[in-house]
UniProtKB/TrEMBL annotation:
Matches recorded under PANTHER family: LIPOPROTEIN-RELEASING SYSTEM TRANSMEMBRANE PROTEIN LOLE
Name of this protein: Lipoprotein releasing system, transmembrane protein, LolC
Domain ABC3 transporter permease C-terminal, first and last residues per copy: 274-407
Protein's cellular compartments: Cell membrane
GO cellular component, one term: plasma membrane protein complex
Transmembrane segments: 21-49, 271-295, 315-341
Main location: membrane
Pfam families, sorted: FtsX, MacB_PCD
GO annotation terms (biological process): lipoprotein localization to outer membrane; lipoprotein transport
Length: 414
């Protein structure tokens, strides 16, 4: 073994300071606490940011397609053959035509803008994020002329399944008196809750044929939604999708449409990692200060050990083991605390909210209805490795000072 039994015994004895050495023990305790809090904080924050990105990505790619095929100009016409070619491209699992447009919801004098999406009834039911999120009503009624709205939109206007929703389209009929907006009343067949407030309050799903009639697009669609097996591979599949389109349209994938959003999340994540790493570095400096004070206090003991035959290497290993033990124990404690916190973060949030009476995670601000946390074990290993590595580095200089101590000088005035 690297450390002998004698070295381990002396190192552990130095960590248990006597009454007159209590101040050194207090500093070592604060160093251990600092390492533990730094590691735990870094694991928690990175896990929350990973969970936030994964939840947003899952919601966005569940409601929206992984890629879109638009016409070169205007709506897509005679899209059947094009959809078959796109579906035959490698990696593509589904192709769904849809009509998209803006509309105004007007109920008892209160109006708000919504985004209307016309899709086929079978496509509505086969989308897990949408079809499985129906909380009121029946998704099967969506294909019988009824529409589906988000739960936040329903709560805002006090709507229930079976009520009629009035939509006003800006694409109206041209008359001698100008353009008259087109108005339609549609029964509500289902109410869904995706879990992302932006979608739950602004999206209205409508059967494809009904949307084509409402927006005066007979036999036309806005675009084709393309779903692939792995959304992360969309960059590699972009060329094959472009070849399937063959000049009849243009392809736009989710990375292009949401590039600024996810780039901002990545930049914020990297900056948070850098800032929170400073907590561990500060705790490592505390280890240095506590070890230097320990070496100074144990000068006579070091001299006696040297006169009894202990080598400089033995002395260096003793103090290295003392300082490294603080870092290792603190890192393990921080790792345990961070993992437990991440596994129970939503319950902890609910408890804090009930005690303080405040909303710590407003869905209107953060888009999601719950606080997510996704543990990336590779990142956790990096954090633990950084904590242990900084702890080892922090003990090298004090251990070297202890090994260089001259026994004669240490015992001169004893």
């Amino acid at each position: 073994m690297i450390f002998s039994a004698f070295e381990r015994m002396v190192a552990m004895r130095y960590l248990r300071a006597r009454r007159q050495e209590g101040f050194i023990s207090v500093i070592a305790g604060f160093s251990l606490l600092g390492i533990a809090l730094g590691v735990a904080t870094l694991i928690i924050v990175m896990s929350v940011m990973n969970g936030f990105r994964a939840e947003l990505l899952g919601r966005i790619l569940g409601v929206n397609g992984h890629a879109y095929v638009y016409a070169t100009m205007g709506p897509l016409e005679d899209y059947g053959p094009l959809a078959e070619r796109v579906k035959a491209a490698p990696g593509v699992v589904a192709v769904m035509p849809y009509v998209e447009g803006q509309a105004l919801v007007s109920i008892q004098g209160v109006a708000t803008g919504v985004q209307v999406r016309g899709i086929r009834p079978e496509d509505f039911r086969t989308r897990p994020v949408v079809g499985d999120s129906v909380v009121l009503g029946d998704g099967n009624g969506f294909g019988e002329g009824g529409i589906a709205i988000g739960i936040r939109l329903a709560q805002r206007f006090g709507l229930r399944v079976g009520d009629e929703l009035t939509l006003i389209s800006p694409r109206g009929a041209t008359t001698a008196f100008g353009t008259v907006p087109r108005t339609g009343r549609f029964p509500i067949a289902a109410i869904f809750e995706v879990g992302m407030s932006e979608y739950d309050s602004n999206i209205v799903y409508m059967p494809l044929e009904t949307a084509q009639a409402f927006y005066r697009m007979p036999g036309q669609i806005t675009a084709l939604e393309v779903f692939v097996a792995d959304p992360n591979d969309i960059g590699l599949l972009r060329a094959s999708l472009g070849g399937a389109v063959a000049g009849q349209g243009r392809v736009l994938d989710w990375q292009q449409t949401n590039s600024s959003f996810f780039t901002a999340l990545q930049v914020e994540r990297n900056v948070m990692f850098l800032i929170l790493s400073l907590i561990i570095m500060v705790a490592a400096f505390n280890i240095i200060s506590s070890m230097i004070m320990l070496v100074k206090d144990k000068g006579r003991d070091i001299a006696i050990l040297r006169t009894m035959g202990a080598t400089r290497g033995m002395v260096m290993r003793i103090f290295f083991l003392s300082g490294a033990s603080i870092g290792v124990i603190g890192t393990v404690a921080g790792f345990t605390l961070g993992i437990l916190f991440c596994d129970n973060i939503e319950a902890i949030r609910q408890s804090i909210q009930s005690l303080t009476g405040t909303d710590l995670f407003n869905a209107e601000i953060y888009f999601l209805s719950h606080l997510p946390a996704k543990i990336d074990w590779r990142e956790v290993a990096q954090v633990v490795g950084m904590g242990i590595g900084l702890s080892f580095l922090a003990t090298i200089y004090p251990s070297w000072r202890a090994a260089r101590l001259d026994p004669v000088e240490a015992l001169r005035y004893e």
